[in-house]
Amino acid sequence: MYRRREFIRTWFIVSANLFALAKLPTAFSGFMRFSVYGISSHPIWLRPATFLDKDRVVKIAVVFWIILGSFLCSPSWAEDAFKSFEVPTANTFPTRIVIDKTDTVWFIESNLNKIGRYQPAKGAFSEHLIPTPSSIPSDVTINNTGNTAGKIWIAESNANQLGVLDPITLSFKEYDIPTISSMPSRIASDHRGNIWFTEFYGNKIGMFDPRREVFREYPIPAPNSRPSGVVADKKGIIWFLETEGNKLGRLNPQDGAIHEFELPKAFESPRDIAIDGSGSLWFGGHIGRNLMVFNPATHKFKTFSMPNGGVVESLSIGNDGKIYCTLRTSSKIAVFNPVTSAFLEFDVGMGKSQPNGIDADSRGNIWFADTVKNALIKLDKTMVEKLWVK
Question: Domain span at residue 30?
Answer without folding.
Answer: 2-73
